[in-house]
Structures are given as C-alpha cells and as structure tokens.
Predict the structure.
Amino acid sequence: MVDCGVAIFDASQASYVYISDMVERALGYKAERFLTGGLDFTFTIVHPDDLPGLVRFLEMEMDYLDAMPERQHRLNYRSSYDYRLRCLNGNYMRVLQRNAILDLDEEGNACRMLLIISNVSHLKKNDSMMINIVRDQHTDLLYTYNTESHTLSTDNFLSKRELEILRLLLGRDFTSKDIADQLFISVHTVETHRRNMLEKTNIKDTSKLVSFAEAAGLI
C-alpha cells in the first residue's frame, strides 16, 4: 500500500491525530494544515460539486453506526467513498477514502478511525460518487451520488452477477470463456456484462475497473 496516504481521525473532536507524509506529498499541503484545521479544513478543499455528497455520506455513515444493535460490532465496520480534493497547485485529485474504526469510547461510540486515502484519478473519470459500507465482510449499504441532480441511487450500480464476474477476474488471468464456463453462461453474456460495467462506471478498461472495485471493497 505504498501508494496510499494514511491518517488517524478523532471522531469525537472532528480532528486529525496523525497525517502521513504521503498525504502531504500527494496534495501539497503541510500536515499541520490538517492537524490544526481538522475536518473544517478538509471541507474547504473538497470540490464544491462533491461537498453536498460527502456531507450526505458522513451523515449516512453516522446513522448506520448509531443503528447497530450491538456496539462492539462497530469494530467490524468498514466504509469507503470517493470524492475530489483540491491540491495546493489548484488541480483536483479524485481520492478513494477507506475507513475503519480503531477503538471505541466507554459508551461504545467510535473514537479513533483509520483513514486510508488513495489517488484514483487514473481509474475513475466521471463525476459521480460512491459510498460502500461493509460489515463482517458483507456489503450492507451501497449507493452512488449524482453530483448534478444531488440524488442517491442504487439503480445504476453493479449487479450481483457483475460483481461475481469481477471477483473471478481478481488475481486471475481469466478470459471471457473461462468466466462463462465457471458461471455456466454464454461468452456473449459475459461480454455484455463487461460492456455494461464499463458504461455504468465510466472506467475505460476492465483491469482498471477491477482495481477500483477491489480498492473500494466491492470485491
């Protein structure tokens, strides 16, 4: 994970405890800007079109955690979402942020969180955003956010069959025929699923789609 920046976030104070050198090198800002400015500073460099979606994602994340019947299960929680950040040079970078709870306070609320931040500008070109929440290795919540209409949707996301095909492609040199034989479907059906996935995600080739899906915790 040498291409990833790491941060530790204090959820109770909405502040960062630690920022790795990789975050500083990628974005251009000194770590101190994040450490002193906290979440408020991060919001100032989020793309204006993405900010309402990111706020919505954070609200959904908190609502999800609050609804967990047994608070200890929060330690098995993972989430990811992508958005654009403005670098110090003025250019925007699309990042994928993955989150995990490190510890809980005495009341069972999230205390410190591990944030892993990757540059996915080369993988995803469209302006939609995605939130994925996983518990016990199973996806519980998956939405895309349209930055133009400011709406959440599950309709345009990958189907169970499409995700199954991506899992078969992960770490394997499978052809469409190999996948067709594995799933007992036609090669034409596999190729149709490939085209549909690329069209839905606006990612140019299957290898990049697999990389993005793996990084986001979809497969």
Remarks:
- Residues 8 and 18 are 5 Å apart (CA to CA).
- The radius of gyration is 18 Å.
- The chain has a mean pLDDT of 87.
